[in-house]
Amino acid sequence: MKIFGGRATGELTAAICRQLGVEPGTADISKFGNDNTFVQIKENVREKDVFIVQTSCPPVDEAFMELLILADALKRASARRLTAVLPYYPYVRSDKKDQPRVPITARLVADLMVTAGVDRAVTIDLTADQVQGFFSVPLDHLTAQPVFARYLEGKGLDDMVIVAPDPGAVKRAQRFAERLGVPMAFIDKRRTGSKVRVTTVVGDVRERQAVLFDDEVDSGGSACEAAELLRDKGAKTVYLACTHGVLSGEAQRRLAASAIREVIVTDSVPVPAEKRWDRLVVLSIAPLLAEAVRRIHTGESISVLFE
Prior knowledge:
Blueprint: E1 2-5, H1 10-20, E2 27-31, E3 37-41, E4 49-53, H2 60-76, E5 81-86, H3 105-116, E6 120-124, E7 139-142, H4 145-155, E8 160-164, H5 170-180, E9 184-192, E10 195-202, E11 209-217, H6 221-232, E12 237-245, H7 251-256, E13 262-266, E14 280-283, H8 286-298
Parallel strand pairs: 1-4, 4-5, 5-6, 6-7, 8-9, 8-11, 11-12, 12-13, 13-14
Antiparallel strand pairs: 2-3, 9-10
Helix pairs in contact: 1-8
């Protein structure tokens, strides 16, 4: 087994390798003067079971192109099997044609990876489950729910309620609430012109510790509105738990000034120092991904990772 990491996931790749007791694979990744990416694999991978860890973070296109070039280089170096480990799937929001003359980029991403030589893929908490059907090779869709569950159970929160921030997140929140054995609620949203506004809470949150649960937090605007609404409806405290901490634009400032007690994310997307504040908690998914890699390599079932 060999594990290579793109430049977007150097720390996460190293953490996965430490969990497995292996050294990260060595490759030179650089840029030519004309801005073209160059990759050279610096060790023998012939007939090896190879994993590439690369996530989606700015610059997104560059990170994804780097993944494709790594895959091509490893395949041409005679790797036996190539698995792409994608903690945060590139272009995951472009999963359907919901406007005239627009692409389904998440499908294009899957096709490009297979063309580059990827034999299998692993990802975590897709925004839309249908992305799994875009692949013509096996895809293991993991969830960070066990990671969040252990953290929240360790906090000993009483009267917890899991809240879906919109109707589209209800299934995800329901599964998480069942795992924790607590009730759930959801926030209804209405579109007025070009703006989407939170309107009401469906479910009982009064005198409860509310945990907003979603797949990602981007600008943080909707989460802050939802937190204010939950407090208005009588929630004692509000937590936000999201797998992918994208935190774009003014998200850090907005969330730090909000009514949210803690923002809990994973390291599926690197969170640099300038985006951190005292109420941000970053949980590691390295143990989860390391166990998935180990089980794929040995041919074991990964369904146990959902328990």
